[in-house]
């Protein structure tokens, strides 16, 4: 399992790589995961990397950590304007930013290559945060669901299901069968967004429209 210090080394290894994503976008690994060990001597950059604690961090308060930055009145960001928050974080703190939400450390990186390095060390059986609501529903509706699915299962159960399904799902013929239905949904969504624009060419409650689109997909 990667220690915080080694995790910092992984992140630090990509600090000087040019970012391929637009600046407002950040790659966020928001689910916890168990990873395999990292040999810091495999790469000179890893050996020279700084520890996890030295990653630039948003100021924290007791108990709530840095969650205050999203709160009304005292906060500086709006959850509905996350792209603007990411722009500001990147400008103030740099390519890699750490914040503490309650007892959890969250690391944002604006460098996709860094996420590639991290994901390669997840191991065969990554363990991520549990989607409790989906798990409970699928366990309750056993007449509809034979398993919890790849979004719910953990460890070896997850790997067994994924290894069986990915062979089928990655075939071009399988993907093509979904192409035209998905294209129809996308076209309808674009037309609806166009019709909902106001005088400033903005869409009120755009997030709600995205939820509807995601539900239909």
The end-to-end distance, rounded to whole angstroms, is: 36 Å
Can you give the mean pLDDT?
77
Largest sheet strand order: 1-3-2
- Overall geometry comes to globular
Structural class: mainly alpha
**pLDDT < 50 runs, ≥5 residues:** 1-38
Short characterization:
This protein has helices at residues 4-12, 44-47, 82-93, 112-119, 132-140, 155-169, 172-196, 206-216, and strands spanning 27-28, 96-101, 104-109. With 217 residues, it is mostly helical. Strand 2 and strand 3 (104-109) form a beta hairpin.
Topology of this protein?
Layout: H1 4-12, E1 27-28, H2 44-47, H3 82-93, E2 96-101, E3 104-109, H4 112-119, H5 132-140, H6 155-169, H7 172-196, H8 206-216
Antiparallel strand pairs: 1-3, 2-3
Helix pairs in contact: 1-4, 7-8
Describe this structure in words.
Keywords: Heme, Iron, Metal-binding, Monooxygenase, Oxidoreductase. This protein has 217 residues and is mostly helical. Strands 1-3-2 form a three-stranded antiparallel β-sheet. It is globular and about 50 Å long. The longest helix has 25 residues, at 172-196. A hairpin with a 2-residue loop joins strand 2 and strand 3 (104-109). It has three domains: 48-122, no CATH class; 125-170, no CATH class; 173-216. The protein contains eight helices and three strands; from the N terminus they run H-E-H-H-E-E-H-H-H-H-H.
